[in-house]
Design goal:
alpha/beta; single chain; eight-stranded mixed sheet; 29% strand; 7 helices; Rossmann fold; 259 residues; binds S-adenosylmethionine
């Protein structure tokens, strides 16, 4: 599986943590590649029964079909189409565009955002590389969905202006185990790599949001933990000491979690 699988898994896990029991029965994946997000989604939402995967590359569809043989992906509806010219997309509980909008020009991206808004019954998710450019796309999508009245549920704890200033970007990290072939191809010695990603999840109806989001690895010290949080008041530092009733929660909290 490509490293994007781990990023997709981490995002969907966070959504299911934030909205336990939402019940995702259908998935529409825009720019599915070989079906990476479908693999992540069936793990996190085992109730999934209808999967529509849209991809322009016939070769990737064929690989995806082969990989999915004998799994729930086998019954997916694969459509070879341009995601920016598909006004009529099947409504689905969850609509995702993972690492695909970055391959489109601005006009095509706007058309995809519009399609996502129309097709998402419950939630829409966009994931891009955790780079300045990737985050730029996420910020653009965020403005679009807020203007259209959608409810931003993650990672942003609010719909006010994004407090990330130039030269910094909101991103998270997912650990990817490296096989020996993987290590050789990348001339790497480590048994893992960290996939950095940025993302946005919106809901069609008001839904539970975290009060704030942990933006960096927490700083763990003897007797206290430092957090950098995105909050309604901007980016804030918070220290939790051992005597705080939240100490146990703080010890388990990770970069990317809601706080
Ligand atoms: C980087 S890959 C990501 C694949 C997969 N979503 C993932 O997360 O691993 C981007 C995919 O989007 C597809 N794509 C890009 N532009 C597209 C378009 N206009 N219509 C359909 N598919 C498109 C590409 O063919 C490619 O498979």
């Amino acid at each position: 599986m490509p490293a994007t699988f781990e990023a997709g898994s981490a995002v969907l896990k966070e959504i299911s943590r934030q909205l336990p029991g939402i019940g995702v029965h259908s998935l529409l994946d825009l720019g599915s590649g070989p079906g990476t997000m479908a693999w992540a989604a069936i793990e996190i939402f085992p109730e999934l029964e209808a999967l529509t995967l849209i991809e322009r590359d016939a070769g990737l569809i064929s690989i995806g079909r082969r990989m999915g043989t004998g799994t729930p992906i086998e019954s997916s509806l694969w459509r070879q189409m341009d995601i920016s010219r598909s006004p009529e997309l099947p409504e689905s509980d969850l609509v995702v565009a993972s690492y695909s909008i970055g391959e489109l020009d601005e006009k095509a991206r706007k058309s995809v955002y519009m399609s996502m808004l129309g097709a998402a019954r419950i939630i829409g998710v966009i994931i891009e590389p955790g780079t300045g450019r990737g985050f730029g796309m996420i910020k653009e999508a965020r403005s679009f969905f807020i203007e259209k009245g959608a409810w931003i549920i993650a990672p942003c704890p609010h719909k006010l202006e994004c407090p990330m200033t130039d030269g910094d970007w909101c991103h998270f990290s997912a650990r990817v185990e490296r096989s020996s072939i993987h290590r050789r191809l990348k001339s790497g010695t480590m048994g893992y790599e960290d996939e950095k990603y940025s993302y946005l999840a919106f809901a069609k109806e008001p839904a539970v949001k975290a009060a704030s989001r942990i933006l960096r690895h927490p700083g763990i010290h003897p007797g206290f933990i430092d957090f950098t949080l995105c909050t309604e008041n901007g980016i804030e530092k918070k220290t939790i000491t051992k005597s705080n009733p939240l100490w146990k929660t703080a010890r388990k909290a990770k970069w990317g979690d809601g706080w």
